[in-house]
Amino acid sequence: MNKFKEGDWVRAVVDRYSRTSYMKPCKVIEVMDKYTIKVETCDTFERWEVESKDFGYCPLNHILHEGDDVGNKRYPDIEYTFVKYGIYGIIARNKILGYLETIPFEDIMYQSRFKV
Q1: pTM to 2 decimals?
Q2: Cα(10)–Cα(4) distance, rounded to whole angstroms?
Q3: Smallest Cα–Cα separation from 48: which of 12, 102, 2?
């Protein structure tokens, strides 16, 4: 039995896929068999058949939308605004200097969706 079901949000935990790149959120749209799932990328809405062993669950607060606030582990004092997903990370606007930067997926500091 496959560990995922339709509607689950997942992301690649290996760096062997190009379009469903490492850590990019994807939605499971079909469970093909106990080893394969069909996913849709969150940014380009492309559909790909992938091995489910190479994917893990994606926390919902790790699915970014245009305008979301994010941080960068390398520069924790600078705030960024998410613009779009890239191949190896995200494109975000530096709130201090105003220019676009690429932040690798492993360096993203996700913001909590809960605000008081």
Answers
A1: 0.83
A2: 9
A3: 12
